[in-house]
Structure formats: structure tokens, C-alpha cells
């Protein structure tokens, strides 16, 4: 009995000694490390981590950054409702600190206030798009254009207008103004040349650009420019 | 019943099954070959003269992607189209027409600040093919990226 007790005591004492020595070693090791080195190493690690997080955030932001455009239906203090050319409605969420507002004029853009944006303005919104809601990073007031192509079905020589039916079977009436840039494909040289209204014939294919309007029931537009592919090209 | 007899019966049933399966399959194959020609041979030959849309390289735009936001005032339009096709690329600021000498094409195209609606139309050399269209909306927004 005494022998067993003695062995137990010895084992307990040995284990205690081992535990104490281990604890002591740890303490010594941490104390021996230079505080300056640890601090600078940690700072460097934090800096690298911060950079990684910033890069990742930027990457995700770029990936999710989408742009939509359309006419403003309403502008309330915290959100704008817009309608695209395809008649889709989107809710634009505005943020007092994050969202920036610009107006594009030619090659320049100017920062504007949010309340300058009015109903029927054409705007481009960039931000994170989820379903029909976009959280706006930037809003640009711009001009919207339509670029279409179709065949000439009717020519009104008195009013200088042409009727066009597109491949999607949409009908357009185009007013050819003095300012309209008109060009035509020369079927012999295959080079585009300047042309006049008198050159347009029924059956010709016309590529055209018009400025989008907030409301246009008759699909009647003033043409910005037209490019005519004469029907003879398709008979060659 | 003896063990040998039972083994012989099982083996016989198995062999019979294999032969039956082979005969049924072969019969089906022969019937299918007999009924293969549905349309008269003349009609099949005439169809060769019609334009086959599947043979033509359709207009494909590989770059840029629709809806792209970039911070440069020009982009490269890269794509594939049937050889010798007339391509018309139009946007509010630029019209370009050219013949694609190869099936791959690449052209530098200018962009205006803001939204750029670009329409690309391909008129194949074979006039019996329909023109093909692609629309792109590219946003040149310098402060975004």
C-alpha cells in the first residue's frame, strides 16, 4: 500500500514539474521576441489583408456593376423610377453619400444635383442591379438614341419623309431634315458616299439613327442620319 | 431430379433467351432499313439546291459583351461571319461598311461618352440568305472603373 502511494506521488510530482517547465518555456519564448519586429510584421500582415479585401471588393463591385438606361417616370427623394425603351420599369435607389449625378454634353460631363433630374429626362444608371432594382453609384443625364434598319415602304416627297418597316415589323416614319446626314452605298465601289433625299427609292434598305423621345405614339422621328443600301445591291 | 439435369435445363433456357434476343434485334434492324426513305428520291435531290442556313457561319460577336461599361473612348468589335459578307456597323457617332475577307473580323470602333447603341448588320454574299443583326449597348463612363 505504501509502495503504491509512493509511486502515485512520484508520478504526480513528475507531471507537475513537466507542466511547470512547459509553461515557463512559453513565457520565456514570448518575452524573448522583439516587440518592434512583432508589431511591424503584424502591421504588414494587416496591410496585405486590407489590400486583398479592397481588391476583392473592387472586383465584386466591377462584376456586379451594371448599367441601365431609360426615361425618368418619377424622381422622389430616395428613388427614381425609369422606363426603358423595351417598356421595362426599374426602381433606382439613391444614396445621399454614395450616388453621384452628372450631365453629359458632348465629350464633357458636369456634376449636377439630384433634384435637377426631371420627369422625361433620359438617364444612364450604373450600380448593382438585382432583379428590377438598381442601387445607383452614378446617374448620367444623357440623350438616348435608336439605331435601326428597315426597308423603305413609302416616300412623301412633299413633306420630305419616308416610311420604313424594320425586320422586327416595326413601322417608323422618318422626317429627313436639312441637318440629317445622308449617305448611300455605291454598289460599284462598295464605298459609302454622301447622298440626297431624291436618291431614296421604295424597296431600298435604310440604316438610321434617331433621337429617342419620352412619348411617341406614331413612331415618327426626325432622322439624325441615314445610310441607304440601294435595292440594286441585292440584285447583283 | 438429378443435379446434371437441372443444370442442363437452366443452360438451355439461358441459351434460348440469347438466341431470341438476337433474332428480335436483327428483325427490327431489317425493318428499319426497309422503311428509311420516307420522301421520294427526287425531292431529296432538289433540296440540295436550296440554301441551307446551317451551312452558313452565323454572325457572332465575341467582343465586346452587350452592356459592357468601359473607361476608353474606343473598343474593338471582334466576331465571326460568313466570308465575303457586307458588314454595316452603325452608331450615333460612326457608320462603317466593309466586306469581311475572312470569317473572323476585328475592327476598332469609336465610343461617345455615355451610352453607345451599336447595330451590326451582316448581308451575306449569297443574297438568298437573310441579313443578320446584332445590337450592342456599350457604356463609356470614365469615372466608373
TrEMBL record, chain A:
PROSITE patterns: PROKAR_LIPOPROTEIN. Residues 1-19 form the signal peptide. Keywords: Signal. It comes from the Bacteria. This is DUF5666 domain-containing protein. It comes from Candidatus Roizmanbacteria bacterium GW2011_GWA2_35_8. The lineage of its organism: Bacteria, Candidatus Roizmaniibacteriota.
Automatic annotation (TrEMBL), chain B:
InterPro entries: Ig-like_fold. Keywords: Membrane, Transmembrane, Transmembrane helix. It comes from the Bacteria. The chain crosses the membrane at residues 6-24. This is Bacterial spore germination immunoglobulin-like domain-containing protein. It comes from Candidatus Roizmanbacteria bacterium GW2011_GWA2_35_8.
